[in-house]
Amino acid sequence: MRSIFPLLVRVCGGVIPLIPLFRQVHEAGERMKQYASESLDRYRKLVESGKGEAPETLFSKVYQTNGQGAMPYHEVRDEAVNYIAAGSDTVSTTLSYLTWTLSKKLDVRDRLVEELEALPRGFGAQELRELPYLNGVINETLRIHTAAPAPFPRLVPAEGADLAGYSLAGGVEVSAQAYSMHRDPAIFPDPDEFRPERWAAPTAAMKDAFIPFGRGVRGE
Questions:
Q1: What is the helix (H) or strand (E) element at residue 98, kind and residue range?
Q2: Are residues 124 and 70 in the same domain?
């Protein structure tokens, strides 16, 4: 809602809280900011204690830029908000669809269970990462039931660009949505079929089109 109606959420939810739906969305955003600020404050205290108790996390490098002129505090906080949302909603959505799919496709479930039962006693995360069929099930779930299926807008460079025979003017906003990319039959044969084995030897085109969480400027 904040992405589709940013102005309405800000005005009707915060400045003039008249519409209940937008007010709830606005309040949810404010709670997220509060959680992020509290998390930042806890981490800052660990760092400043000098006891070496601050763990290295995905957020460490972002936090370390604060105060060095690279990122002001509000941008660091907004990054924390993104991490909280990206690390909760996407995981819960993906696992829900994965469980739902296994309950319908018993052959996939049985093959996955067989692979998991072969794990050694006391196995850890590294052993799980190396299971080919488990990774195939996860990737196929992300392909069909993408956690972030919306378009990812980008701006054409000022000098313009040519893409697939089309001339794009500079400054034009273009988007590619994961839902469509993941269902291209030229890349994923029988795209609506749940086939974890297709990831046993993914092609370069599959890897390039697979964007369940989008792809930033540093994506390969």
A1: helix 89-104
A2: no
